[in-house]
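Q: Convert this sequence to structure tokens.
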Amino acid sequence: MKIEKNDYQGKGYVIYRQLINDTFADVFMCYLGLKRKVREELIKDKVINDQSTLFGHIGDSLLKDCYSLYGDSLFDTIMLKIMPTVEEFHKKKLYPTYSYARVYDHGQKMDKHLDRDECEVSVSMNLGGDIWPIYIEDLKGEVREVVMYPGDALIYQGSICEHWRNKFAGKHCFQVFFHYVTDKYKHLVFDERPMLGIPYSSGKKK
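A:
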């Protein structure tokens, strides 16, 4: 594990190398890929329709054609396990809202944006696939290109630090996000779900 020069309070982000090890990252990548494949097979066999969110969904407000998995039980569990580490940087008690995983494909891009209020503090963790840098504008107005490898994480204040990705030149990139807030009364814990691990359809529409 290696933490790059820590100025989280000044810049609004920190890069944490190997927040999880390569083996766990590979398992989680394969898990996400299997979820996507299961969804495709069940739709093909007409067991579920393409509107079902039980095994993930296609498209959201940022990427209309990207496979995404919201509030998965495994990823929500990881969100809880790493929360104490994130709190060490943010210096405040955090409350989990939701996890969100994506499989990015060739040609996709992420426009410059701020996250919604339920993503006051976020972790973007690389699980594997081809390299795809993320860019972040810190609290001082400086832009940083961040290259992550399996197990690396960017801990950042997503609702005030703009971030984006240029057009993806690779084939696939597997990424998972964990989101937290500091005020449990301002935003209901678990993103208005009754508990962690509840499927996407029970949460707020993304």
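Confidence is low (pLDDT under 50) at residues 202-206.
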